[in-house]
Amino acid sequence: MSGLSPADAVPSGVRVLVVEDEPQIRTAITITLRATGYEVSTAANAADALVIARRHRPDVVLLDLGLPDHDGLHVIRQLRSWSDVPIVVLSGRTGCGDQVTALDAGADGYVTKPFSIPELLARLRATRRRTGPAHRTTEVDIGRTHVDFTTRSLTAVTDGTPQQLTRTEWDLLELLAGNPGRLMTYTELAHRI
């Protein structure tokens, strides 16, 4: 793809949920993100977006405001009730009021259509720098186990034997490790995991 540079590449395993009802735009964004190393899930409406977000736990959501079943603001509010996933709005709505409303509802960024691919990728990188695992420890030894959050792998410190966790166990471990010293209630953990 033209306009992509080595700076656009991302660590493998970064999951993006693209919520866009226009098939051509959704396909173009998906192809671009996959070409730069993102794992991509897609949804064409609000209901599917919320189901996919719960199941796949994306690292960032790209969200169109004009969806066929609900306004994108509904998706933002629903996501914010149980998740702190970064949300970047992609919208043809250019009014300052629309941007302020989306940001006040919980969006982390706003990109106006039409947008350039380099601008979109830069917005994703900036959002991930502010909110993503880049600020968290990527490797840690816990007792006799070495944890690598980047590759989602566990190995015994003594002999390097790999150990397995389910996706839910990984999500829980990442959530707890990302909030050191903070008491988290069962209800909060259940909502976020």
Describe the structure.
The chain has 193 residues and is an alpha/beta fold. The protein has two domains: 6-134, Rossmann fold, CATH 3.40.50; 136-192, Arc Repressor Mutant, subunit A (Orthogonal Bundle), CATH 1.10.10. It has seven helices and nine strands; from the N terminus they run βαβαβαβαβαββββαα. It has helices at 23-35, 46-56, 72-80, 96-105, 117-131, 167-177, 186-192, and strands at 15-19, 39-43, 60-64, 87-91, 109-112, 139-142, 145-148, 153-156, 162-163. The chain has a five-stranded parallel sheet with strand order 2-1-3-4-5, with helices on both faces. A four-stranded antiparallel sheet has the order 6-7-8-9, with no helix packed on it. A hairpin with a 4-residue loop joins strand 7 (145-148) and strand 8 (153-156). Helix 2 packs parallel to helix 3 (72-80). The protein is globular. The N and C termini lie far apart (36 Å).
